[in-house]
Structure formats: structure tokens, C-alpha cells
Design brief:
By secondary structure, the chain is an alpha+beta fold. The chain has 3 domains: 97 residues, no CATH class; 87 residues, Orthogonal Bundle (Helix Hairpins), CATH 1.10.287.130; 147 residues, Histidine kinase-like ATPase, C-terminal domain (Heat Shock Protein 90), CATH 3.30.565.10. The strands form 2 sheets. A 5-stranded mixed sheet has the order 2-4-5-7-6, with helices on one face. A two-stranded antiparallel sheet has the order 1-3. Helix 7 runs antiparallel to helix 9.
Length: 388
């Protein structure tokens, strides 16, 4: 989505107000000009009649002279009035634009405050309200409507978090009971071979269900929870820890690991969620890799982002399908379904954790084959290489 255009309504209001004031000024000046025929005329001293003419002829000549002088005075006054009206009109143009902008700013100020307050409200502070004071008008009605919407969203988020938490506890109880029943059945003297085999298969399925349930909980926390435990975390250290934990799986697939994770990629966030994010990225690179393949893990850091990059080789992938890998249970064909323990939520959880920390996740199909996953997060303020 592109950046919204700013000031469009303000410009329209400014032009509207300016046009109204300017139109009124034009009408007023036109009426003044039309009614200016009754202006005062300066007195003109009569000329002396020419010598040798009769008194009546001299009077008529004097009247004609006075009429010409009066007409010249009227023309001069009309010209001065026209010039003055044009100057006043130019002044009114500038004054109308200035006054229109001021009035438009005052009219739109409550809307700007509502917009700024709405932008500050997120999933972490849905309890906040606009609480616009003032007369009951269209602006206050809009603010009250937004407050009502935020209240409904808050109730929905709280109910969803409560449901996820309660469902997790309720589901883990029967899982624990099933595990205990299997242990009792296997612990009996001389259990049948079929019982032991069935118990093994059931334990495997229970582990997968437990892993899936844990994934749902982490996903719910990342999407709708609060990050109250924010602290400085090194992405490089988390990557090395994840590789150490999965060393046996890497050896089982004879994967070659090129690790260039440095300790300078620091970010700020929940250590538990960020650790799970890195673990899922490493797990995805191991589980969906071919035997004898390779993994490259590196970190990058600048003033804008701290990045963790995980690359794998393999066949050439379709970028359109890769873009859908952050959707739950989305996979690239049967060859990427993975063995036991793959819940289909790995990259979905990664995307949710990255979004919860204000970062971005990029999934890129490498032209030469394989996948490149980049988790870019805001850097920790004042981070320096090698400092915790």
C-alpha cells in the first residue's frame, strides 16, 4: 500500500474558503463601482466670458465649459476607482488564501488529532481511547465510533488470548493422561510385542500433537500477546545456540554448515520469542534440506536493521509458491513435508514473531536453487560489536 496523500482535504477547504471570500469581494467591489456615479465633484472656477459677446452667449459658453470639466473629473474618478478596485482585489486574493488556510486548519485540527491518536494504538495498547472532548458534532461522533470499535477489538483480543490459554491447558491434560496410560501398558510384565510397537507409534503421534500445540501457543503469543520482556538480544548468539542444539540432526543428514554469524547483530525484543524464531529458521533449513546439502547462516547489521540470513541449496523453486510459505501448513510439495516433528507452522511463527518486533521477513527463491530467508529487525540502540 502506498503512502497516503497528506493535505488533500486541507487544500480543498482552503480553495473553497478563498473562493467564497474572493467572490464576495468581487461582488462588493462591482456594486461599489456601479453605484459610484454619485461621487463628489471638485468645484471648478468659472472662466471669464470673452470680451465683446453678449451675456446670454457667454453664459451658454460657460455652461459647456463646465460640463466638459465635470465629465473629465468623472472620468478621472472612475479611472481611479477602477485602479483602486483592482489593487484591492489583488490584496483580497492573498488575504482570502491566508484566511482560508487558517480556517481549514482549525476545521481539520480535530481530525488530525484523531488520526494521530489512532495510529498510536496497536494490539499492545487497545485499552487506550481517543476520548475526544467538545460539543456533540460530526467529529465527536466519528471519535466515539472509533472508540466503540477499539472496545470491541479489545474484547475480541482478550477473549482470543483467554481461549488459546485455556485450550492449551485443557489439551495438555489428556495428552499427559495418554502418555501415562502408555507407560503403564508398557510397564506390565512381559508386554506383547504388538503393545510395545503400538505404544511407540502412539508416543510419536503424541509428540507431534504436543509440538503442534506448542506451535499454536507461540503463534498466538506472537500475534496477539504483549512483549513485556524486551531486552537486548544477539541474533548471532541465538544462531550458534540453535546450530549446537541441532548438531545431531545436521550430522545425520551430512549437511555442510557455513556459519558467519557475528555478535554485532543486536536487536531488542523478547528473548524467548526471538530464540524460537531463530530455531524455526534453522529447523526449516535442516528439515527441508536434501542429504549432503549445505546451509549458510550469516548476520548483518547497520543503523537501520539487524538481519539474520539463512540460505539452503536445492532445486529451483517458484517464487509465487515461496511467498505462501508463511501461511499455516503451507509447503512446497510433498518433498518439503518433512519428517516427524514438522508442524507446518515453522515459517508462520517466524513471520508472526518478526512482525511483533516491528521487522520484516523476506523469503526469496535463489536463482541457482534453494531458499534464502532473511529476518530483518530494528537494531538495538547504541549496539556495538562484541558488546552485550
Amino acid at each position: 500500500m502506498g503512502k497516503p496523500r497528506s493535505g488533500t482535504v486541507g487544500r480543498r477547504f482552503t480553495i473553497l474558503y478563498a473562493a467564497g471570500f474572493l467572490g464576495s469581494a468581487i461582488v462588493l467591489l462591482a456594486l461599489t463601482y456601479l453605484m459610484s456615479g454619485g461621487g463628489q465633484v471638485t468645484s471648478v472656477a468659472p472662466e471669464q466670458p470673452p470680451a465683446g459677446r453678449s451675456g446670454l452667449a457667454a453664459a451658454e459658453q460657460q455652461i459647456r465649459v463646465l460640463e466638459r470639466q465635470l465629465s473629465d473629473v468623472h472620468a478621472q474618478q472612475n479611472h481611479q476607482l477602477l485602479v483602486g478596485s483592482l489593487i484591492a482585489l489583488v490584496v483580497m486574493v492573498g488575504f482570502s488564501l491566508l484566511l482560508g488556510r487558517v480556517l481549514a486548519g482549525r476545521v481539520l485540527r480535530p481530525l488530525r488529532l484523531i488520526t494521530a491518536a489512532t495510529r498510536r494504538i496497536s494490539a499492545e495498547n487497545l485499552h487506550q481511547r481517543l476520548a475526544v472532548a467538545g460539543p456533540v458534532d460530526e467529529v465527536k461522533e466519528l471519535a466515539d465510533t472509533v472508540d466503540s470499535l477499539l472496545e470491541r477489538l479489545e474484547v475480541s483480543f482478550v477473549a482470543q488470548r483467554r481461549f488459546v490459554g485455556n485450550a492449551a491447558h485443557e489439551l495438555r491434560t489428556p495428552l499427559a493422561t495418554m502418555r501415562a496410560s502408555l507407560d503403564v501398558a508398557v510397564a506390565k510384565p512381559e508386554p506383547a510385542a504388538q503393545t510395545i510397537a503400538l505404544a511407540g507409534r502412539l508416543r510419536t503421534e503424541l509428540d507431534r500433537v504436543d509440538h503442534l500445540l506448542e506451535g499454536f501457543l507461540v503463534l498466538a503469543r506472537a500475534q496477539h500477546g504483549t512483549l513485556a520482556d524486551r531486552t537486548r538480544v544477539s541474533l548471532g548468539e541465538l544462531a550458534r545456540e540453535a546450530l549446537t542444539v541441532r548438531a545431531a540432526d545436521i550430522a545425520a543428514k551430512t549437511l555442510t554448515v557455513d556459519e558467519e554469524a557475528r555478535a554485532n547483530a543486536w536487536t531488542r525484543g523478547s528473548p524467548a520469542l526471538l530464540s524460537r524464531m531463530v530455531e524455526n529458521m534453522v529447523d526449516n533449513a535442516i528439515v527441508h534440506n536434501q542429504g549432503g546439502g549445505w546451509i549458510r547462516i550469516s548476520t548483518e547489521h547497520d543503523d537501520i536493521e539487524a538481519r539474520l540470513v539463512v540460505e539452503t541449496g536445492g532445486r529451483v523453486l517458484d517464487q509465487g509458491q515461496v511467498d505462501r510459505l508463511t501461511e499455516p501448513f503451507e509447503r512446497l510439495g510433498a518433498d518439503r513435508t518433512g519428517p516427524e516433528g514438522s508442524s507446518g507452522l515453522g515459517l508462520t511463527i517466524v513471520a508472526a514473531i518478526v512482525a511483533a518486533h516491528g521487522g520484516r521477513l523476506a523469503l526469496l527463491a535463489r536463482p541457482e536453487g534453494g531458499l534464502r530467508v532473511v529476518a530483518a529487525l530494528p537494531p538495538a540502540a547504541g549496539s556495538q560489536e562484541g558488546t552485550p
